[in-house]
Amino acid sequence: MALARKLVQVLRKAKKLGQDDPRRIIHSFKVGFAISLVSLFYYFQPLYDGFGSYAMWAVLTVIVVFEFSVGATLGRVLNRGLATFLAGGLGFGAYRMANLSGEMVEPILLGVFVFLLAALVTFVRFFPQMKARYDYGLLIFILTFSLISVSGYREEELLDMAYRRVSTILIGGFTAVCVCIFVCPVWAGEDLHNLVANNIEKLANFMEAFGDEYFKVAEDGESSRASCLQGYKSILNSKQAEESLANCARWEPRHGKFRFRHPWKQYLKIASLTRQCSYKVEALNNYLNSEIQKMKSNEYASVHI
Fold first, then answer.
1. Range list of H helices, the chain
2. Coiled-coil intervals in this record (predicted)?
3. What is the pTM of this model?
């Protein structure tokens, strides 16, 4: 019985999750469809003969880069592709240089190269702008450089491995981007626009309900006014979502009413001003609530006296 109750609770939560945003259900099907497409490498012999076991990199690429919005997916694909290409070239160069230095010096030189580059790239990740937009690419850069430079393969095998790895990653990334854009796309820029507009509307609803509640302009719709008076609280914690959507929106191509070089930074400025206003609204709301409680307690005391 306990297991059945838990199962029912999970199903209810899943239903609510889908009802809150039906795009989540569509996204789940899109991920499954994209993975099924790249899995064809294993079922068609000509494709498998061309890449062999490296075809798994295409599947892994789809799994790790496919995000909810188009901008987030494009950002991860470009980060992964560029990082793999650059790190592969640098890794091969480091391997070649160490190989020419002799067997005694080669492991020492490779260790120094890996240490310096990994330390440098890790430090770069602490910069806020790099952390926000290129953190995933920097991680892939460290991983690919380390794999290539200390792989121990012969030179021709190393080039073949790099070629197959880059090719399968490009195929996986291209598949993920195509499915994400052409099958029920979710645009981060549109979500950011709607989020900022809804936050401003919540503040407007608060100010409208403010008069009804505290100055008794109207007496009807008590429950709706109460919900409006609490709606501003979601604005206080929306900064992280706004910044994430803005970073993703910068990767997106032209779509709908949003053009290239759209002023996404202005959205963040408007969102920041809206949030500052909501803090003042919260202070005002708390002050008036305390005053009302005092008035009610005084009235209660006077009645009993």
1. 2-20, 23-38, 45-51, 56-65, 70-100, 106-124, 128-149, 155-182, 188-214, 222-231, 233-236, 239-249, 264-304
2. none
3. 0.81
